[in-house]
Amino acid sequence: MTADSGWRRLLRNPMAMAGLTVLGLILLLALFGPFLAAHEIDEVFWDRIGAPPDFAAGFYFGTDANGRDLFARTLAGARVSLLVGTAASLISLVIGVTYGAIAGYLGGRIDAVMMRIVDILYSLPFVFFVILLTVYVGRSLSTIFITIGAVIWLDMARIVRGQTLSLKQREFIEAARAFGATDRRIILRHIIPNLWGPVIISMLLVIPDAILTESFLSFLGLGVQEPNTSWGVLIGDGAQNMMETPWMLLFPGAFLALTLLAFNFLGDGLRDAMDPKE
Amino acid sequence: MEAEPRQDRIVLNVSNLTTRFLTPRGTVTAVDGVSFSLAAGETLGIVGESGCGKSQTLFSIMGLLPSNARVGGSIGFEGQELIGLPPGEMNRLRGIRLALVFQDPMTALNPYLTVERQLCEVLEYHKGLSRADARAEALEALRRVHMPEPERQLRRYPHELSGGMRQRVVIAMAMIGKPALLLADEPTTALDVTIQAEILDLLAEQSDSGTAIVLVTHDLGVVARLCDRVAVMYAGRVVEQGPTRAVFHAPRHPYTQGLLAALPRLDDLASAGRKPIEGQPPDLLALPPGCAFSPRCPLADGPCREMSPELLSRDGGCAVACHHADGRGGVS
């Protein structure tokens, strides 16, 4: 069976395993951050505003512009950012792939209507959309998920539709029809498995996109509220004081970069593992 | 192969099949009034140049036409009318009662599925078999197509197989449901000559076990080898139809004569005795009035350019659509 040999290929891929390990560590840090950090995320140290790292006092990453422990805040930010990134990639995977595959496979008028809906959502001014949602849904973390979720799958749907259109012309799809496969079966069994390569790549591209969108939304005052934080917020704050206190940008930025790198290694490994020709 | 049991079980009865495509430039009649019937264990060859409607005839029978196609006439399959059959019911027949072998085994298999999955897929569409049972049937199907080391092949992916082995898998997929009718669209065109012979033997075996086969090809050698009867198509119409031996020995339609004369022959390669048919097949959007072959026909005269000849039965079980077919049975 395909999945077994795929898993074996994935487990034998050192890059993918390294990525998986790093992601696991970051996840553990995010989950157990409060126990690891020496200070609370909202405790203000008036004598240490914008102070560099000090291991003896437990400020491993230094403090932020308000004198709070950056280590504790970076780990707390990891929770929100990982959650947003994962949720966004799952939404684009489930909704985007299904939507795009159905539109591309059925074609004709159904395709035209489905893709015009995508175009409309695409062309909505994002900020206007956000404000509208805030009015109706209110400010909370779930607003972020709904907002990001509403737009994040559009790219995936377009990519998948395009790939499906070309895949549909392949003879084995015709063959599956000739063997009595239903449309549903053809999409699930023959179209989607053949889309893994581009799907995994665009799924990974979605993660930084979502994490940065979240920081933008938080900047607008939606979603994550002080004293809670996210990597996007920390990076935004850090960037403003880049010249004087570089560690405020460096540490959260390094975490984000490391996470994205690990996701990419894992994604490449997954793509290779799914491709029987590798 | 006895002759008696064939007559009593007609599997496929196509009558006046007409397939039109509505295109922006006009209506194209790809298949124009084709009729034939086929008994169990019988093999019919459909030959003709590219674009003569032979493949569209197959796809019409399978119900695999694009949405701009309009099919008329009647396709009786095991006593059931296929034209106008709801898609769900058609799906229930496809792959299990009637199956299609594709031209190019390189593209007809899903690159992401192992041979076992490809074969079991077909069974899962139609029968709720357990995995072990489906696997056993898949193995049996590979054995029937003489696949070397069938257990090992089950685990392999299409790209790990040679062209001949892939075509065996394709035929195994088609035969796994033990269909009454096998439609083959140029099943050997994409293969090496030596592999072609093996695949043809394989098809002959399926036919001996009682499967009716419609074989579309432009290779007259394949028809001579495999088919009991042959239908020659030109511009969507059958121009000559009959027992293979009779048609090939004494072709009556000038087009059939031309096809046979265009064949390279080992015994007169030196004399360059091949005579290609002059001219091009007609544009289906702008068919000439009268006989569609008349612009290329050496015998064409007044009536040929005015009136389309009907397909009329002649002696020897043949039917010919030509104004000049009467009284001149021999090769010109």
TrEMBL record, chain A:
Organism of this sequence:
Telmatospirillum siberiense
Q: Transmembrane stretches, by residue range?
A: 80-106, 118-137, 143-160, 194-212, 247-267
Chief site of localization:
membrane
Example GO biological process: protein transport
What is a single Pfam family found in this protein's UniProt entry?
Answer: OppC_N
Membrane-topology annotation of the record: Multi-pass membrane protein
Which InterPro entries does the entry link to? BP-dependent_transpt_permease, MetI-like, MetI-like_sf, OppC_N
- The family this protein is said to belong to: Belongs to the binding-protein-dependent transport system permease family. OppBC subfamily.
> According to its UniProt record, where is this protein located?
Cell inner membrane; Cell membrane
Q: What PROSITE patterns would the database entry show?
A: ABC_TM1
Superkingdom of the source species? Bacteria
> CDD domains per the record?
TM_PBP2
Domain named ABC transmembrane type-1 is located at: 78-267
Protein name, per record = Oligopeptide transport system permease protein OppC
Q: Which keywords annotate this record?
A: Cell inner membrane, Cell membrane, Membrane, Peptide transport, Protein transport, Transmembrane, Transmembrane helix, Transport
UniProtKB/TrEMBL annotation, chain B:
Q: Which InterPro entries match?
A: AAA+_ATPase (IPR003593), ABC_Ni/Peptide_Import (IPR050388), ABC_transporter-like_ATP-bd (IPR003439), ABC_transporter-like_CS (IPR017871), Oligopep_ABC_C (IPR013563), P-loop_NTPase (IPR027417)
Gene Ontology CC, one term: plasma membrane
GO BP terms: namely: peptide transport; transmembrane transport
Its chief place of residence is membrane
Key word Translocase present in the record?
A: no
The ABC transporter domain extends over 12-260
Q: Where in or outside the cell?
A: Cell inner membrane
Pfam families given in the database record: ABC_tran, oligo_HPY
Keywords, ordered alphabetically: ATP-binding, Cell membrane, Membrane, Nucleotide-binding, Transport
Membrane topology of this protein: Peripheral membrane protein
Q: Name one GO molecular function term.
A: ATP binding
| Record NCBIfam families | oligo_HPY
UniProt record similarity statement:
Belongs to the ABC transporter superfamily.
Query: What protein am I looking at?
Result: ABC transporter ATP-binding protein
Q: Which organism is it from?
A: Telmatospirillum siberiense
Q: Which gene encodes it?
A: oppD
